[in-house]
Amino acid sequence: MYKFEDDSFMLHTDLYQINMTKTYFEKGIHNKKTIFDLYFRQMPFDNGYAVFAGLERMIDYLQNLHFSNSDIAYLETLGYEEEFLAYLKTIRFTGTMRSVLEGDTVFNNEPLVQIEAGLAEAQLIETALLNIVNFQTLIATKASRIRQLVPNDNLMEFGTRRAHEFDAALWGARASIIGGFNGTSNVRAAKLFGIKPSGTHAHAMIQAFGNDYDAFKAYADTHSDCVFLVDTFDTIKSGIPTAIKVAKEYKDKINFVGIRIDSGDIAYLTKQARKMLDEAGFHDAQIIVSNDLDEVTILSLLSQGAKVDGWGIGTKLITAFDHPALGAVYKLAAIEGDNGEWLNRIKISGNIEKVTTPGKKNLYRIINKDTGMSEGDYITVYDEKIDTSEPLLMFHPVHTMKKKLVKNFEAVELLHDIFVDGELVYESPSVLEMQKNCEENLNHMWEETKRFLNPQEYPVDLSSKLWNIKNDLVETLSNQVLE
Ligand SMILES: Nc1ncnc2c1ncn2[C@@H]1O[C@H](COP(=O)(O)OP(=O)(O)OP(=O)(O)O)[C@@H](O)[C@H]1O
Ligand SMILES: O=P(O)(O)OC[C@H]1O[C@H](OP(=O)(O)OP(=O)(O)O)[C@H](O)[C@@H]1O
Ligand SMILES: O=C(O)c1cccnc1
């Protein structure tokens, strides 16, 4: 299908990255060491936390980073010169990558991924890294929001048909599992990522047989686990009674898992369904619902006392319907000076929240040892030591009068070495382990951070040392502009 057998992801970048690389190369600064930070500024869905996802794909991308022959030949047709192309051919990822882990709860304005690499290398990978993290983190976060509402129910991701093409369906399914879903209808995702495939059947099958009874029987003849879709003609008058009838006729010949309702008033219908199934003795039969569900409809259905055991959620999850982009950015924080020292770099903005935090940094989660709960995240200069034997002063980086003194705490490092000087030193766990990691992270978060609506802002603070460095740099640069 693709025209080039050696197509690579290297050109999955914005043209301006290649143009900047050309400038760096021709000016001889392409190998200067740099630090880039990847972070987002606004909490998605106005949620109190986000769930990080995308690391495994970033690793795969960086491991295979190279311009293929056809990439180079294509760039030649765009007019890039031979010497520059010869240099591009040599590019591999030889830098150091540090990252938070998949399933970690993360927050705005903290470095999630830190790349320490030559300027050209670090620049060229920006677009792909953002492309991966922005989507996967968004979907994992939405999945986790849904999971918080129904901690014990079966959550199935049904979105492939409405996803923004194949890749979104695949990686979105995986992200949903990291955020807490039990299974996905996408069989390829299940195969590739070792996750649970889940599914029932569609109206087409009932239509093919012409009536509920023949269709359910046909399904029962050909499967042991049976979930019957009961809303094709009339849920109360035909679908549910017929499902019960077939389940009684087949008794132990099938495992009557339950029914699915995909239209109508879900609160009313599930209450009726529960009554009818219970009266027939099928107390364990599950009621699964679907139809354009999201957090808001689920919350409303719960408040109406809907009787639901399983939720199939597609369109609104896989497209992150109410907040379609995370908005993560990738900013240069430091560059090597002529004598090998780090020169801090900053991007000034009229909006104080958008001013970048300069330099090579470390990120810690401050866990209160008395409560086991997280007091906030704390960003330091990379070689700064946190003295856990002394109380720690945490203060809001913009509204500095908001402060607290934390005692008896531990500082857990959140950025892990993934590549060191080009060598992969990290092995990704299974997707289910990532889901477990997410649950464990959430166990350290206060309910006030996790609540669905208007959560409390989670502190992401700078150490005094880093705060001073940032403010001094802002001061110096704004004075320069004035002069
Ligand atoms: N009791 C309820 N309270 C709140 N929302 C509900 C309730 N029951 C269903 N919904 C939601 O209302 C919307 C109904 O959409 P719509 O009118 O398109 O469905 P429908 O006509 O019942 O079914 P369809 O068009 O799929 O055959 C869906 O998003 C559904 O999840
Ligand atoms: O509603 P979602 O959250 O996206 O979940 C997936 C939907 O996909 C199927 O519908 P189908 O493609 O047959 O369309 P329809 O039910 O909207 O007619 C299924 O019956 C669900 O309703
Ligand atoms: O298995 C199902 O019921 C299913 C799968 C995809 C989309 N809608 C429903």
User: What summary fits the major beta sheet?
Assistant: 7 strands, antiparallel
Mean pLDDT, nearest integer?
97
| CATH-level-4 superfamily name of the largest domain | nicotinate phosphoribosyltransferase
| Strands side by side in the biggest sheet | 14-13-1-5-3-20-21
CA radius of gyration is 26 Å
Strand content: 15-25%
Spatial gap, N to C terminus:
59 Å
Low-confidence stretches: none
Number of helices: 17
Mass-distribution shape: globular
- List the domain count as a whole number: 2
Task: Give a structural overview.
The chain has 483 residues and is an alpha/beta fold. It has two domains: 243 residues, nicotinate phosphoribosyltransferase (Alpha-Beta Barrel); 170 residues, Aldolase class I (TIM Barrel, Alpha-Beta Barrel). The protein has 17 helices and 22 strands. The chain has a seven-stranded antiparallel beta sheet with strand order 14-13-1-5-3-20-21. The protein has a seven-stranded parallel beta sheet with strand order 8-7-6-12-11-10-9. It has a four-stranded mixed beta sheet with strand order 19-15-16-22. A hairpin with a 5-residue loop joins strand 15 and strand 16. Helix 7 crosses helix 8 and helix 11 packs parallel to helix 12. The protein starts with 14 loop residues before the first helix and ends with a helix. The chain binds adenosine-5'-triphosphate (ATP), 1-O-pyrophosphono-5-O-phosphono-alpha-D-ribofuranose and nicotinic acid. 1-O-pyrophosphono-5-O-phosphono-alpha-D-ribofuranose (PRP) binds next to strand 12 and helix 14.
